[in-house]
């Protein structure tokens, strides 16, 4: 049997990167996970690169670092590094305000909105990958990923952090509000398949189904023992379902339903935080 292709994970110290490296190692892939600033990334063959460098929740307070991570270091890598393919991790946040969530959709951003700095930088990174003169370029737009991480990032993490501090969570959006969530296990498996595939272009990594706040808080009440209140006249936010037809057709993975993996995640979270089991 031939040796598995070498995969380099850039940003291996981050949430996605750590889980991806662990997944690759369990699967027996030859994996290179350089530390930040390692000059060897410009001098040695990297094989199939997964570009997991980026900022998320703190992008508003670190705009220059955000652009450096999403665009500037990527430009340097494309110009100087030796690689077979590169998979750039983007986000389904770029579909904000869109009615079409297919990978081919025309997207809208507003430079007058500070929140759009994230989307603008990710889209610049995507465009640079796809039109920078290299073959083997892929873009993975990730949804809200559920998994153990060091710092609260997505909405669910923030609710868990609040509940662990106070035993209570207070929602400022209505129970009918929906978001798309994907388990970290499905995310890293899909990223591995994309990185090793000859397919190129943009791929949505999402469940394709909205999960209501109601379902999230019921699980937090049942498995974590938190009490829950909702702000009066809390608004409903409801994003368009992410279109996953292309990714499912190309890579053949049907994501786990939220109801199946979320209780297991909460059990892992309790163990990770050394929280007492519910009576």
Q: What does the model show?
A:
The structure is a single chain. The protein is an alpha/beta fold. The chain has a single domain (7-271), classed as NAD(P)-binding Rossmann-like Domain (Rossmann fold), CATH 3.40.50.720. Helix content is 38%, strand content 17%. The chain contains eight helices and eleven strands. The protein has helices at residues 15-26, 63-80, 116-131, 155-166, 184-196, 213-224, 245-251, 258-272; strands at residues 7-10, 31-32, 48-51, 85-91, 137-142, 144-146, 168-171, 178-183, 201-205, 210-212, 227-230. A six-stranded parallel β-sheet has the order 2-1-3-4-5-9, sandwiched between helices. Strands 6-8-10 form a three-stranded mixed β-sheet. A two-stranded parallel sheet has the order 7-11. Helix 3 (116-131) links the parallel strand 4 (85-91) and strand 5 (137-142). Helix 1 (15-26) packs across helix 5 (184-196), helix 2 (63-80) runs parallel beside helix 3 (116-131) and helix 6 (213-224) crosses helix 8. The mean pLDDT is 93.
Tell me the layout of helices and strands:
Layout: E1 7-10, H1 15-26, E2 31-32, E3 48-51, H2 63-80, E4 85-91, H3 116-131, E5 137-142, E6 144-146, H4 155-166, E7 168-171, E8 178-183, H5 184-196, E9 201-205, E10 210-212, H6 213-224, E11 227-230, H7 245-251, H8 258-272
Parallel strand pairs: 1-2, 1-3, 3-4, 4-5, 5-9, 6-8, 7-11
Antiparallel strand pairs: 8-10
Helix pairs in contact: 1-5, 2-3, 6-8
């Amino acid at each position: 049997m031939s040796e598995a292709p070498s995969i380099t994970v850039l940003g291996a110290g981050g949430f996605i990167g750590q889980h991806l490296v662990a997944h690759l190692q369990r699967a027996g892939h030859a994996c290179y996970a350089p530390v930040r600033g390692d000059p060897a990334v410009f001098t040695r063959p990297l094989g199939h690169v997964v570009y997991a460098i980026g900022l998320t929740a703190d992008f508003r307070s670190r705009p220059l670092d955000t652009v450096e991570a999403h665009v500037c270091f990527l430009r340097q890598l494309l110009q100087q590094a030796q690689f077979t393919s590169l998979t750039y991790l983007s986000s389904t946040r770029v579909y904000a305000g869109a009615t079409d969530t297919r990978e081919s959709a025309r997207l809208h951003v507003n430079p007058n909105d500070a929140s759009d700095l994230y989307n603008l930088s990710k889209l610049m990174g995507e465009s640079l990958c796809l039109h920078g003169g290299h073959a083997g370029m892929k873009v993975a737009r990730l949804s809200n990923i559920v998994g153990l991480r060091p710092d609260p990032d997505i909405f669910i993490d923030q609710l868990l952090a609040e509940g662990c501090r106070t035993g209570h969570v207070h929602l400022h959006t209505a129970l009918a509000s929906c978001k798309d969530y994907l388990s970290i296990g499905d995310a890293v498996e899909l990223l591995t398949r994309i990185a090793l595939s000859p397919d190129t272009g943009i791929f949505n990594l999402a469940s394709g189904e909205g999960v209501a706040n109601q379902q999230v808080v019921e699980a937090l009440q049942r498995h974590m023992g938190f009490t829950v209140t909702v702000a009066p006249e809390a608004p409903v936010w409801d994003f368009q379902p992410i279109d996953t037809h292309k990714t499912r057709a190309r890579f053949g993975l049907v994501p786990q339903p939220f109801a199946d993996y979320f209780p297991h995640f909460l059990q892992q979270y309790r163990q990770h935080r050394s929280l007492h089991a519910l009576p």
